[in-house]
Amino acid sequence: MMLTDFPLFPEQASTVAHQVDALYIMLTIVTGLAIVYRRRPDNELDQEEEAPKALEIAWIVIPFIFFMATFVWGSWLYFELARVPDNALDVYATGKQWMWKFQHPSGQREINELHVPVNRPIRVTMASEDVIHSLFFPYFRTKADVLPNRYRTLWFQATKTGRFHIFCAEYCGTLHSGMIGWVEVMEPTDYQKWLAGGTEGSLASQGEKLFQKYACATCHTNDATARGPVLLGLFGKTVTLSDNKTVVADENYIRESILNPQAKLVQGFGPIMPTFQGQVSEEDLLKLLAYIKSLTPPPKG
Amino acid sequence: MTSVTYHDVRFLEPAKTRNYLNVDYGAFSWLFTKDHKRIGILYMFSISIMFILGGFFAMMMRLELLTPEGDLLTSDTYNKFFTLHGIIMIFFFLIPSIPAVLGNFILPIQLGAKDLAFPKLNLLSWYLYMIGAFVGLLVIILGGVDTGWTFYTPFSTQYSNMHVFGTTFGAFIVGFSSILTGLNFIVTIHRMRAPGLTWFRLPLFVWAMYATSLVQLLATPVLAITLVMLMIERVVHVGIFDPALGGDPLLYQHMFWFYSHPAVYIMILPAMGVASEVVAAFTRKKIFGYKFVAFSSLAIAFLGFLVWAHHMFVAGISVYSAMIFSFLSYFVAVPSAIKVFNWTATLYKGSVSWQTPMLYILGFIGLFTMGGVTGLFLAALGLDVHVTDTYFVVAHFHYIMVGGAVMAYFAGIHYWWPKITGRMYPEWWARLSALLVFAGFNLTFFPQFVLGYVGMPRRYHAYAPEFQVLNVMSTAGASILALGYALPLAYLLWSLRFGRKAGVNPWGAVGLEWTTNSPPPKDNFHETPVVTWDAYDYPAMLKAMGETQNV
Asked: Based on the number of CB atoms within 10 Å of its own CB, is A114 exposed (0-12), middle (13-18) or buried (19 or more)?
């Protein structure tokens, strides 16, 4: 067996990888030091009597300070992993027993393969068609469970080109261990070439076709007097609901409003929209979402 | 009334009276016994079968993982095997192990009591356990279940086409056995202590069992509720957890871990209790910081209820709630660390004798510490994102549950075997088994930390080729571990007939159980003991013995 067959670390292929590894190495070293420099019999005081309280307290306080330092470091990293950079490129993922389906805003679809450019933050918005899955990129040191009832996001920024594992990390049934794939990290020019490959039009334009197919436009006419709320410029805005609460029209709100329209009615509109639960697939939902996101009002003036 | 002290009775020959084993004979005298000692034996017999069964499934998994391809078992079979391994080992072996076997047998004797407070309830607990176990075994015969021991929804309620209902029903029934045992112990500890046995004279095993019982009593009903909700959703499709029916799958995870995290402490607190007994007995010393150790058991039991969502850092909880649960997880490490420090401090300058129970407990301290420290890795949020749901977690909880709880169970079995059976086990073979278990365990599970960090997800039937070397090491270790566990089965049975007679107090240990015959009489003591000494008063005992010798 070669030493290369015996890895201690997965390749560091993202911006956060070395930070996660640093925390891991720090904890490993402290553990090692604690074993090497543990208390020895010869410097132990006589145990016939109870040891002084100060010693007992020091044994509580010193580890506790160390624990808190680890806590702060770990939380800081977690925030890094949760905060998506503004210039992130969108990719959509759907988990399904037992495959990963990816959609790009430009309309490309792929299964168990994900093409992304190097040195560019990628935001993956994802949902599951059935059970809970977990999208795991070991070389990028990130993962997130993929839920069947709402969108979740994760992000990464690959720092080198190559092929890197995708695993499903949450047990999902018979072929759980076969729900794997590869991220293909490409030079930006190669990525542009790959994007130029034939598609059925951008994700938003595919969503527009679905918008017509499901006759959404009969009510959502972008006219303020229509039976359905105006969708133009809706995404990211705060809307007031019929119970006077407010909600930000994000991915999860739009998803819920398609699947369960009665849950959060916009103020001034009746509960007349039918549910599309079970009629629109996760992938089509993502297309509709891309379309609604693309509906920006024309510049004024 | 005369008071009986340890140094009076230590040199007594066992009286030629009837003991709990020969007081009557026949299957009915066992199946309808109300004697806590016999019920302890019934549990020992039942959970040993479960341990062998759970071990078989583990060994089959390790053999499958010898090669990257899924070639020995089909995917469905592999999934069933890890599910059954988890369910059997957790619900049917580990949770009852130390409390129901050693707690049942030793706790009343340590208290100077004739029995538990509710002997009939105790027998009912065993029957509930047996019914639950029967349902569980029936499921295996009918075709098994493939949800993982965690039964995550909506997989368990909507997508798995195997015997989810039967399995959860079995776990549900066994839960009541656990609740009743906890209740029985709490009442017994409050009400049935011998005269003079104040709370701070109690052996630390009793403190640990008290803390365990509180968790059993308060957490297990939540599991029962959760499993009932799961069964309702699966059978009559009421939407609770399944989003397609309007439920929330994360609600299930919250409820499941609200029980199952404290359940870790149901497994580890009794182990800590055994460790305190054995460390004191084989170092001839008072446990360093007795009150710290006693209260840290209660602190663990309390804090154990506040950290459940640390199993869900990537599951979709908010960043801020994750921070709170991470923070609290560091708190729960503190009382555990206090115990380890105190045992270690007790060891120093103690006259340590390297007998089998001590070897197991030294292994326990090392492996439990390793499990605890790697728990700190997992509690660090940013690091958990990478290692959760990988073999790192598998290694971590096996260090706690096998390296901790099972090692301590074996330590306790060896330590109290002379008391339970009246016979000594063969020391040489027992030491060999302790060493094999320690070596085999580390070779099995240490590589899995690395495997997890490198990125191998758990519950994988087939894996990427670069993970093979570490998997081969792990399987090799599992073979040694299996041998280490098989040996005690053989020599303990052998010792029942051929073992040396143990006498009242073969270890020269302090504690009420070492003042009565081995095996104890049916009512444990010939007369009610009166306690005038603190727990682990080895200095006084050694002094008294020295004086005896000088005379």
From this structure: buried
Q: How far is CA A108 from the centre of its chain?
A: 19
Q: For residue B486, how many other CB atoms are within 10 A of its CB?
A: 13
Amino acid at B127: Y
| C-alpha–C-alpha distance, residues B226 and B239, integer Å | 13
Of the CA atoms within 13 Å of residue B296, those in its CB half-sphere come to 28
- Please tell me which residue of chain B has the smallest CA distance to A148: B243
Spans in chain A with pLDDT lower than 70: 1-6, 37-52, 56, 59, 198, 299-301
To the question of domain A203-294 being in CATH 1.10.760.10, the answer is yes
> CB-side exposure of B227: number of CA atoms within 13 Å?
23
For B171-196, what is the mean pLDDT?
96
Parts of chain A belonging to CATH 1.10.760.10 = 203-294
Residues B132 and A39: their CA atoms lie apart, in Å, by: 47
Whether domain B25-550 has CATH 3.20.190.10: the reply is no
pLDDT digit string, tens, across residues B211-249: 999 999 999 999 999 999 999 999 998 989 988 888 899
Torsion sign (Cα): B472, B473, B478, B480: positive
How far apart, in whole angstroms, are the C-alpha atoms of residue B427 and residue B475?
A: 28
In the 8-state DSSP scheme, what is residue B94? I
Per-residue pLDDT at A231 = 87
Note the pLDDT of residue A50: 54
- DSSP, collapsed to helix, strand or coil, labels residue B71 as coil
Of all residues in chain B, the one with the smallest CA distance to A6 is B469
Q: Is A42 on the interface with B (CB under 8 A)?
A: no
Put simply, the chain A residues between 51 and 110 with a CB less than 8 A from any chain B CB are 51, 56, 59-60, 63-64, 67-68, 70-71, 73-82, 97
Dist. CA A93–CA A111, nearest whole Å:
10
Q: DSSP class of residue B4? A: P
Secondary structure class of B112 (helix, strand, coil): coil
As a CATH number, domain A10-33+51-199 is 2.60.40.420
Task: Report whether A128 contacts A92 (CB < 8 A).
Answer: no
Which residues lie closer than 8 Å to B215 by C-beta, 6 or more apart? B182, B262, B263, B265, B266, B269, B301, B304, B305
Residue with more model confidence, B120 or A283: B120
Q: Which of B94, B295, B85 is nearest to B210 (CA)?
A: B295
Q: Looking at chain A, which residue has its C-alpha nearest residue B243?
A: A149
Q: By the 8 A CB rule, do B213 and B182 touch?
A: yes
The residues spanned by each domain of chain B are 25-550
Report the relative pairing of strands A142-146 and A133-137 from DSSP bridges: antiparallel
What is the spatial distance between Cα A213 and Cα B430, in angstroms, rounded to a whole number?
A: 75
ipTM attached to this prediction: 0.89
- pLDDT tens digits for range B147-171: 999 999 899 998 888 899 999 999 9
